[in-house]
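Hi again,

Forgot to attach this to my earlier email, sorry! This is the prediction with zinc ion bound. I've pasted everything inline since the attachment limit keeps bouncing my files.
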Amino acid sequence: MLKRSKSYTTNAKFMLHGGDYNPDQWLDRPDILIDDIELMKLSHSNTFSVGIFAWSALEPEEGKFTFEWLDEIFSNIHSIGGKVILATPSGARPAWMSQKYPEVLRVNGSRVKQLHGARHNHCFTSPVYREKTQIINRLLAERYGDHPALLMWHISNEYGGECHCDHCQNAFRGWLKEKYNHDLKSLNDAWWGPFWSHTFNDWSQIESPSPIGENAVHGLNLDWRRFVTDQTISFFENEIVPIKEITPDIPITTNFMADTFDLIPFQGLDYSKFAKHLDVISWDAYPAWHNDLESTADLAMKVGFINDLYRSLKQQPFLLMESTPSAVNWHEVNKAKRPGMHLLSSMQMLAHGSDSVLYFQWRKSRGSSEKFHGAVVDHDNSPENRVFKEVAKVGETLEKLSDVVGTNRTSDVGILYDWDSNWAINDAQGYGLKTKRYPQTLQQHYRTFWEQDIPVDVITKEQDFSSYKLLIVPMLYLMSEETIARLKDFVANGGRLVTTYISGIVNEHDLTYLGGWHKDLQEVFGIHPVETDTYYPNDKNYVTYKNQSYELKDYATVIDVHTATTEGVYVEDFYANTPAVTSHVYEQGKAYYIGGRLEDQFHRDFYRELIQELGLEPAFRVKHGKGVSVQVRQDQENDYIFIMNFTEEQQNVTLESSVTDLITGEELSGDLTLEKYEARIVVQR
Ligand SMILES: [Zn+2]
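Structure tokens for the complex follow:
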């Protein structure tokens, strides 16, 4: 496998360990701030994200700035050799600002002006809010830009949500005018205006989607979601103007999120667009370990998928910006991480490309909303606390892994994730309303490769496909002409392409293709999907593929075969014995179509053949049973291998070559026993 040189993420040469440090909650407790210095050292923490929600401590009254406390915090952190990730405070506003300038408050979809409170609820268009953030950001950059402890910028916090105020309506109309070249007819055409008499004859008639107004025009809904991403980025770009001007060499990030209840990528913003504006991707990972719905390994697979997506956004290492050393406080049940799980789950992040393990928050709050959210320092203020000790162990481990910093990984397999397609299919009033599950479907395809330790990039549609031998695009409902042309080129040039039911149905405006499936897709796949049947939860069917029978749920697409080969057939219903799985040689490559939603075992068997045929291999071979994951990061000389046991049992594994344990220095080869939740990090030089 091609080895890749170390790539740029931060200016640090060590693994970052620490997290969101909020001394602004403790300014009247100097004794606590002094304790912090000692506890930072004892927990092996070296990096602190500061100032994220500190606006009211930094500017308690309009124009009156109080940076002295932050000066002291910088000094304290610097005195122990620590680094600061300095945040801009726009994630939460002081009350005086909402009171004096109500335009900074959001208006919700029902056009109700929100009151001051909570956080992450500013209008992203408000000229006042944009001006206020620039003023404070400039002062922060001027004051701390040259501080030796400053490592990175953390812009705002967990951007998300939307605003429907008049400023935002005007901005949306402006965005639409630019997109449709000031031609209202092209907008009406793109949105299929005549349906239900929704044709506009003046731009001022257009409003953002609303539960009490327009919500049935899919093209409008999709454009609104795209606008929300672009307007959020526009707000971010406005925030960083003074920062780029004053500190051009300090890297910039903002913390991305995932949907933590189902552990799928964040749905609200198109991160593929946002990534282009960042120097470093970072994200906040809060998997519900030890939940009662899925095995530890199943959850680990989903974490792997999101890591591989966020790493692939820039094809470089990323940062784990927030995590919890134990329980979060917002799941329905907030389970403590069992002993060992904190080290294991932290190592999994590194294994997929993180150069950090950072927490929210470093010291647990005494009051308010997150006073029970797991932190490094608990209310007992004690380094003898079980969780504190687990954190210190992670810190000690990270100190031995600085060679891994900046290393990346390569992959021959790409799975394509698309925010546009996900939004459009979820909006589609068709198929099964509860069974679309686009991200989960991608995770199902990812699973086979994760189980076999074969590295995968989860890429987006603008990225280069040419380095992959195998490209998997399940349920790509929305495909522009451009995407179709790029997929066609990929196969023509020798790539293997896999797609499924409900792919290539609509164009970039969410308008269906006319005359059946796109002619280029018909040419590449040698088929024509003619209708898709949707199943009730208790309905099922079967597909026979290579003499095996596999269960089918949710969707079955009836296929007309032109020049493809039928590889599998449906067993029941009016389409019994008709093609369900096809393959087709097109120029130098081959394209596969899977017509129904099939069980995991089908994917294992289907992809096994492709894996063999294409010579896809794990980056490092370890023989192991279910629930063990092996992930590799590389530089030009070394392979850094993470062997992780995501089961509650001891696991015996066999190494196929000899390696050195990076933590203990032991030479290892042959059989190795992994205890419950154990992770070994080894190097092959
Ligand atoms: Zn607004």
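The chain has 17 helices and 28 strands. Confidence is low (pLDDT under 50) at residues 1-7.

That should be everything now.

G.
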